[in-house]
Amino acid sequence: MAEEEKVGFFKRLVKGLSKTRASIVAGFDSIFLGYDVIDDDFYEELEEILIMGDIGINATTSILDNLKDKVEEQHIRRPLECKELLINSIKEQMRVDSTEYEFENRKSVVLVIGVNGVGKTTSVGKLAGMLKDQGKRVIMAAADTFRAAAGEQLTEWAHRAGVEIIGGQPGADPGSVVFDAVAAAKARNADVLICDTAGRLHNKKNLMEELRKIYRIIDREYPEAYLETLVVLDGTTGQNALVQAREFAEVANVNGIILTKLDGTAKGGIAIAIQSELDIPVKYIGVGEKIDDLQKFNADEFVNALFGIEEPEETPAEEGASSESGSEEASGSSEKEEKEENGGWTMFTWAADEDDENAYSEFNWPD
Length: 367
Ligand SMILES: Nc1nc2c(ncn2[C@@H]2O[C@H](COP(=O)(O)OP(=O)(O)OP(=O)(O)O)[C@@H](O)[C@H]2O)c(=O)[nH]1
Ligand SMILES: [Mg+2]
What we know:
Strand content: 15-25%
Strand order of the largest sheet: 8-7-6-5-1-4-2-3-10-9
Number of strands: 10
Structural class: alpha/beta
Order of helices and strands: HHHHHEHEHEHEHEHEHEEHEE
Number of helices: 12
Bound molecules: guanosine-5'-triphosphate, magnesium ion
Radius of gyration: 22 Å
Oligomer: single chain
Largest sheet: 10 strands, mixed
């Protein structure tokens, strides 16, 4: 993947959050420099800034309560001293435990859900690229059979990421696609199977039924796989994203959030609201439309970027931790498209490796 894109993560994040930051930072400057002592007016204005930054009323209230306690405990009087306290306590609240990414290292199925246009397909593509770069064998399932162009869109992402894709004809049962994709994942010994789903405006009952069906198939056909359900939310929609997260959490066992479009929003604070009100971690953020514009959520960097705090310095050598495995020859893959008839519906597959003669043969839809 584009080596010239090696701009530091923090810098890209800062760029992505520039609109959110501008509104919060201006407010912070005015109160942390404008007030000499911490008093009720100060707290009130701080509250307003946090709410305007879309951090949400509940989250803001708990953040402020926590801050007030600490200020009292530590006998802090000057606003600038409590700025650091405030930011540190938000960071603490936002930290995502590394066990939350367990699915990346297990045989897993990742189900990506969310309403229309939030960035599901794009995120599936980016996530596949990220995992592929880590040396994982990834298969995508195009289980959005609702929209005719959805399969093509995901196929393009499969090409970009250099991974394989299983799909069905428009109108096919999404469950049948998942069934075939599971069969393929097992046959190919895939590490991660990522399923894109339809984002049409579901009513809750339809959504529940569809998800239940998909879960049942995964459960029955692939019980050994670790199941991860990620809800994609559009960061530009602010509080509405929070409402969606809550609704999905009611019908599915949601393990995490992918928060997209943070490059074009003044509402990045919503990440904090989701974490504090729903207790669902934001695991990834989307900061653009390109394949490497998906980042693992990093509380320190995110909060620093949101509040306009300069990182001490970008550590010149990142201890080689992140990208080592990514440089494995990912580009030598060849493209091979084929169509296979299968019990009345067409399955399209795309094999990343020409040498892998082990491509799919027949997978039979049950009953
Ligand atoms: N700027 C920006 N655009 C994004 C990001 N993620 C997705 N998009 C754009 O959002 C639009 C919708 O993305 P899709 O991935 O098609 O969304 P979807 O949820 O799959 O949509 P449906 O399948 O129609 O429900 C596309 O134009 C994407 O390029 C992001 O992080 N930043
Ligand atoms: Mg889509």
